[in-house]
Design brief:
Number of strands: 9
Radius of gyration: 21 Å
CATH class of the largest domain: Alpha Beta
Strand order of the largest sheet: 1-2-3-5-4
CATH superfamily of the largest domain: Aminoglycoside phosphotransferase (APH), C-terminal lobe
Number of helices: 12
Number of domains: 2
Order of helices and strands: HEEEHEEHHHHHEEEEHHHHH
CATH architecture of the largest domain: Alpha-Beta Complex
Shape: globular
Structural class: alpha+beta
């Protein structure tokens, strides 16, 4: 995907009816733009098709009307009347308010609790938007997603056995491949022993509107409260998936300190109760060796190096005691 010059960013913003006096590129496809009167907006390229974006917009407008704080358009304002515009390159852009504040810190249990509360409120408000047909649902895809990712890991292990990578990487994967696959198999076994089958057969009852990629970078804290931002991955799923994403993204860089997850879960439970099956389903995703999978991909933030593979495996091993603590938490609550 291409980046845009200053002139082209101004032209895209003009389609929303705003004039840009200052701008800066935040990262690929995201620009912060400022109007002459000092108002700030986020201009973001969306990779979704127009029909999917219309659905996301409809869902988020409903959630917003029901209370939760979101960085999304306000249709009562001139710049918020258009849900999206299309650039001269045919790419879709949305304009949302720029939320000033700070990212929550996993080192602050108060921040993490606030994230749990905000996520629960989002789920509660989004639940009432799911009327009629259930669209863009990933509730039934859990088996196939885990299976596809495990197959990918197996192919990489087979390549390592054939010494297709550098010698240190091939040897590391040969030595630790069975352990990595054991974690993947444990995740699938956990899924089979959960109530997932009955949950997937009742999407109307069990599905919620999911953010899809929650974590510290997708919440903003300020004097008004806790905002959710960045909605490209919004879909329908089980709430356990969203909780897993927030827990994973908050804990992976902090040596799987369970107090972080506890604060998130405590906050969530302030708004709504969690069931035994919810905890089981969170454990499914946490047990799958996702960090190792990302390094093997390679995911651009995790280079495919021996040191990264060691870091990932260390992470998977820490999750074992983390899951034990999650089970104890579930028993208490």
């Amino acid at each position: 995907m291409s980046e845009y010059s200053s002139t082209h960013v101004k032209k895209i913003a003009k389609q929303f009816g705003i004039k840009v006096s200052a701008q800066n590129r935040i990262r690929g496809g995201i620009y912060r733009v400022v109007t002459p009167d000092g108002r700030k907006f986020s201009l973001k390229r969306m990779t979704k098709q127009t029909a999917r974006l219309r659905w996301i917009d409809r869902m988020l407008m409903h959630v917003q009307r029901n209370g939760p704080l979101l960085a999304w358009r306000n249709p009562q304002t001139p710049e918020g009347r258009k849900p999206h515009v299309i650039s001269r390159k045919g790419e879709i852009f949305v304009l949302t308010p720029w939320i000033s504040g700070r990212e929550p810190s996993p080192l602050s249990l108060t921040d993490m609790r606030a994230c749990g509360i905000a996520l629960a409120k989002f789920h509660k408000a989004g639940k009432t938007a799911l009327k009629g047909g259930i669209f863009h649902s990933q509730i039934g895809t859990w088996y196939s997603t885990l299976h596809t990712r495990q197959q990918y890991i197996q192919k990489k292990i087979a390549k390592a056995r054939a010494n297709s990578f550098s010698r240190p990487i091939s040897r590391f994967i040969q030595r630790n491949g069975p352990e990595i696959l054991r974690y993947a198999n444990q995740a699938k076994a956990l899924l089979r022993s959960s109530e997932y089958e009955s949950y997937r057969q009742s999407p109307r009852q069990n599905g919620v509107l999911c953010h899809g990629d929650g974590g510290p970078s997708n919440f903003i804290l300020n004097d008004k409260g806790t905002y959710l931002i960045d909605f490209e991955t919004v879909h329908v799923d089980l709430r356990a998936y969203d909780l897993y994403r927030v827990i994973y993204n908050s804990c992976k860089d902090y040596r799987w300190d369970f107090s972080i997850a506890k604060a998130i879960l405590d906050g969530y439970r302030e708004v709504t109760n969690l069931k035994k099956t919810d905890y089981k389903l969170i454990r499914v995703w946490l047990r799958f060796p996702f960090t190792t999978y990302l390094v093997l991909c390679p995911f651009k933030r995790f280079p495919f190096t021996e040191s990264r593979l060691k870091w990932a495996l260390d992470s998977e091993r820490r999750i074992s005691s983390f899951l034990q603590k999650l089970e104890e938490y579930e028993t208490r609550h």
